[in-house]
Amino acid sequence: MSALTETRPSSVLPTDLTIAAFFEWLEGQPRRFELVDGAPQMQPFVKRSHSRIVGNLDHMLQTQIDRSAFLVHQGDFAIQTGPRSIRYADIMVEPAGGPPGGRTTDSAVLIVEVLSESTAPEDFGPKRVEYQALKALQTYLVVDQETPRIWQWDRGYDGKWSAHATIVTAGAVKVAALACDLPLDEIYFGIPSAANNSQD
């Protein structure tokens, strides 16, 4: 067995991993990790509200998009954001047609992260920068899991990103690249705290 596949405590993490070495090392880990410039970074456990919102988004996207043209992934397929960086978004949509045995994509069209207190610095900071550097990405969404509020960045026709997020608190998020609308009522379906904080 390779030394990289041995389970190690999180306090003794390897450094300077290639993407191939990271996937090999990941096979022996009981927790989820991302790879940030060659260093594994442990991912937090999520709350039920987080999981419900992700499921709601997945359902809406699956029922609206052309599934022969696009694939929807729910946090389980890697996005390569750099030569030694791997991220796992809560929701990611990529064009269909990639090799079945592939383990990564850099062709995401839509990326969604559901916000939590522990992930906010990453979602608004390094992750946003990495995601927006992907040539194919058209829309990046950060979804508050406590109240109906979504930060939306879109790539313009000139290829440049909007300098500031559009904050959506009512109605629907429009994803032009996928020709679909994501109503906030449906995104937050089953989330009592969001219903109580609705600004409709």
TrEMBL record:
Transmembrane segments: none annotated. Residues 21-165 form the Putative restriction endonuclease domain. It holds the Pfam family Uma2. This is Putative restriction endonuclease domain-containing protein. It comes from Aurantimonas aggregata. The lineage of its organism: Bacteria, Pseudomonadati, Pseudomonadota, Alphaproteobacteria, Hyphomicrobiales.
